[in-house]
Every structure is written in structure tokens, then in C-alpha cells.
Amino acid sequence: MPATVTLKKGKEQSVRRFHPWVFSGAVGSVRGNPTEGDVAEVYASDGTFLATGHWAPGSIAVRIFSFEKTNPDRDFFRKRLAEAMQYRVRAGIAGRLDTSVWRLVHGEGDGLPGLVVDIYGNVAVMQAHTAGFWHIREMIAGLLPEVTGGLVTAVYDKSEGTLPFMAKLNPSNGYLVGGNGEAGTVVTENGFKFRVDWEKGQKTGFFIDQRDSRSLLARYSNGRRVLNMFGYTGGFSVYAMSNAALVHTVDSSAAATALADENVKLNFGDDLRHRSFATDAFSFLSGMEREYDLIILDPPAFAKHQTALNQALQGYRRLNALAIQKMRPGGLLFTYSCSQVVSRDDFRRSVFVAAANTGRNVRILYQTGQPADHPVNIYHPESEYLKGLVLYIE
Ligand code: SAH
């Protein structure tokens, strides 16, 4: 018998609208004494069944994976994973010859809150963000070769940094299926090559979510002097190198700039148009003259929690003001926020205030979001975390 969670009177509305989170404040009573990650059924105060999900003791009490009464066994998850695969085939992402890196499972966006699976060639890198998925990681990993039609031959679990600390699960990263020194493999994205180390790299090794923005960049970098701020492994830099006059990559981590150099070399050999700088973005921008006419700002999330929102907005304002101020006339700014708690409106306002403060005339070319393999669940607006603006600075 799964545990049961009965909501307070009147608190069932959001679940009826298919929002996948039950907040602890909405919970009236819990029966069955669940421990973190156990399956729980959610009921309205009048006893009507609402949903099935994973229970946790935090501010989100249940993460829902089904709005039907269900037995969440191997067949259930096989079907969900197969649906995620089918969606990516239909969206033109899986099965392309020029792109071997993409996301197979994007949490709430795929009806699997707490699970992320990224594909790097034949390797799947999996992250459990909840105890619920961590407990069934072997089952999920075992299903990945099958649901991808044999594409996946190894599965690396990288949940050490993503599981809730308080759950005391003592995870350790490692292969659950196959795995013989594949890390450091070269993958392709739109025909460009990247060396990815999912064992040591940030997130699952590569910022897959900027694929569409990198393509857009390549349409505008022709002949320009490009500055790629927060460049990490040089994703934007490699695309810009296809046609730019020069490309400079800045990241505070020397390991990141070394990888950026390597990735540029992998695609373009020793090309003097590229240089990288391992230094702080803010001081680099403050110290430079008007040297560039295309600047990319793709910083890490400035706010991880609601409490840090104001500080984050200030950070975006300061950063964007510096870049706009230092832009050559006729330049383009590609600017992003990946903080989930910063809304699209908040981000737009910060950037527009920054622009206004510099007194420069600014137009919007594009407002961008996440690529199709990071789908936004329309019932869960929180899953829209990546916001971008492309601005023309006169
Ligand atoms: N644009 C990248 C992803 C950026 S991730 C891509 O497309 O792959 C954010 C990067 O910012 C990280 O590599 C981190 O090392 C770097 N970073 C964080 N704080 C920084 C700072 N103050 N100055 C420069 N780089 C910073």
C-alpha cells in the first residue's frame, strides 16, 4: 500500500490543473509513515483521488508523475521514457547525424519530476534530483538502452551534487550500465565537435540548453569581433569561429578556458583569431575599451533561491550595463539568465534598466528560451528557466 497524502480543504485546485508539485502547506494529513522518496497517492479533502508521486519532507511534499491511479513499476517508467524518446524523434532532435548530444529527460517537462537524462553519443548521463528517482536509478538506467533503440550502451549516474543533502543518501557517482573510460569523448552538435567530460565537468558536462542560441549566434557573428563571457567549454566560441573576425573567451575557471581552447582547436586547428582569458567577467568588462561588436553574457544562475532574487536582479543589471556601455556602435548583445526564480519579465526589466542607464539606443532582435529537448510543461511554468535577449546597440 502506498502512503497517502490528503490535502487541506480547498487546496486541490493546483493539482486539478495538473501542476506537478504539492507544497507542504497544502497537506492536511499523511498516512502510511512514508520516508523520503517513497511513492504516495494524493487525495482531496473529500477523499477523491488526485495523483501519484514521490514524497519528500521538504517544502515540496509530493512531486507528481501521474494524475491517474497507477502502479509505478518498470512498465510504467518504460512507457514514460519511451514517450520522452518519441517526442525527441518527432521534434527532430534524436536521430540526427550532425548532433549526438541532447537531453532525453527534462524533469517536469517530461512528466518525470526529479529526473534528468542527457545523451552524449552512446552514453547517457543521469541525475536524480529526488530520493524517489535515486531509489529506482538502477531500473531507470536498465531501461535506457531499450527505449533508445540500442543507442545507449553506458549509463553514468551523476547524482552526488543534485540530491537533497538532508536526505543523507550518500550517493557516489559511477556507471550503472557499461562504462569503460568513455569520459572525454568527442560529441557533435550541428556538426561542431566538442570534448565533453561528464565525470569532471559542470552539470552533466555540457550546456546542452544553449544549442539553439549558439546556432542563432552563428547567423550574426560574421566578420564581428566577438567576446564570449562565461564561456565554459567554449560552446558559443566554436560557433562564432565559423565566421567571426576574432573570438575571445572569458571564464574565471582556468580548467574551463583550457577546454574552450581545446574545442576551438578541435574544429579550427591553431587559429590565431581565438584567445581565452581565465579571469573574472566583471573586472574584464570594467577594464576593457570598446573593442567588441558582439558580446555574449551567459552567467551561472545568480539566484538559486527566491531569497536571493533582488541581489540577482542587481547582478544582471550591473553586468548588462557594463556590456552595453562597452559595446561598439552597431553591436549585438546576446544575454541570458538561467535562474529559475528570475522570471522573463524580471530579466527583461533588469536588462532594459541597464540599457536605459547607459543612454544607448537599444532594439530587441530576439527573445529566446529553451530548445525543444528542454520542454516547458504548460501546467508548470517554473520549468521555463532559460531566458535570452538579443539586442542591437546603436
Ligand atoms: N556559456 C556556457 C555556459 C556558461 S556556465 C556554454 O554555453 O557552455 C557559467 C560559467 O561561468 C562557468 O563556466 C563558470 O566557471 C563561469 N563563471 C562563474 N562566475 C564567473 C565570473 N565571475 N567571471 C567569469 N566566469 C565566471
Key terms:
Transcription Regulator spoIIAA, 20 strands, 394 residues, six-stranded mixed beta sheet, 3 domains, Rossmann fold, alpha/beta, binds S-adenosyl-L-homocysteine
Q: Rg from C-alpha positions?
A: 22 Å
The helix/strand class is alpha/beta
User: N- to C-terminal separation?
Assistant: 65 Å
Catalogue the unreliable spans.
none
The number of distinct structural domains comes to: 3
- The CATH architecture of the largest domain: 3-Layer(aba) Sandwich
How would you state the average pLDDT, rounded? Answer: 96
Top CATH class of the largest domain: Alpha Beta
The share of residues in extended strands comes to 25-35%
Number of helices: 10
The largest β sheet comes out as:
7 strands, mixed
Characterise the protein shown here:
Helices cover 27% and strands 29% of the residues. The chain has ten helices and 20 strands. The chain has helices at 13-16, 74-90, 131-135, 137-147, 211-220, 235-241, 254-268, 281-287, 309-325, 344-358; strands at 3-7, 21-23, 27-31, 39-43, 49-55, 60-66, 101-106, 115-120, 123-128, 154-157, 174-177, 185-189, 192-196, 225-229, 246-251, 274-278, 292-297, 327-337, 362-368, 387-393. The strands form four sheets. Strands 16-15-14-17-18-20-19 form a seven-stranded mixed beta sheet, sandwiched between helices. It has a six-stranded mixed beta sheet with strand order 2-6-5-4-1-3. The mean pLDDT is 96.
Q: How would you summarize the topology of this molecule?
A:
Elements: E1 3-7, H1 13-16, E2 21-23, E3 27-31, E4 39-43, E5 49-55, E6 60-66, H2 74-90, E7 101-106, E8 115-120, E9 123-128, H3 131-135, H4 137-147, E10 154-157, E11 174-177, E12 185-189, E13 192-196, H5 211-220, E14 225-229, H6 235-241, E15 246-251, H7 254-268, E16 274-278, H8 281-287, E17 292-297, H9 309-325, E18 327-337, H10 344-358, E19 362-368, E20 387-393
Parallel strand pairs: 1-4, 9-10, 14-15, 14-17, 15-16, 17-18
Antiparallel strand pairs: 1-3, 2-6, 4-5, 5-6, 7-8, 8-9, 10-11, 12-13, 18-20, 19-20
Helix pairs in contact: 2-4, 5-6, 6-7, 9-10
The site of S-adenosyl-L-homocysteine has 18 residues, from helix 6 and strand 15.
